[in-house]
Design brief:
With about 90 residues, the chain is an alpha+beta fold. About 40% of the residues lie in helices and about 30% in strands. It is elongated, with a radius of gyration of 19 Å.
């Protein structure tokens, strides 16, 4: 399922037009993105939790040349599925 399919499914479930469904999906994704940018956790009970995790700077090697390189610190988004979602999938 891609974003357009999701928007169509939301529109059908909520009895909206496809354009309205697309705006709803965009608004939800935008709200999640905004919260994560601020460093907030997004917890959707029964679905899961989105959280920003920090990775420390580390040393690595270029696999082609074997040269040592510095890998800078970065942030990453993690998703932990909720129990209801895990049970629905299994």
């Amino acid at each position: 399922m891609n974003k357009n399919d999701l928007a169509a499914a939301v529109a059908d479930a909520a009895k909206l037009t496809r354009a309205e469904g697309s705006r709803v999906v965009d608004a939800v994704i935008g709200a999640i993105e905004t919260a994560l940018k601020k460093g907030d956790e997004v917890r959707l009970v029964g679905f899961g939790t989105f959280v920003v995790s920090r990775r420390k700077a580390s040393d690595g090697r270029n696999p082609k040349t074997g040269e040592r390189i510095k890998i800078p610190a970065s942030k990453s988004v993690r998703f932990k599925p909720g129990q209801a979602l895990r049970e629905a999938v299994n």
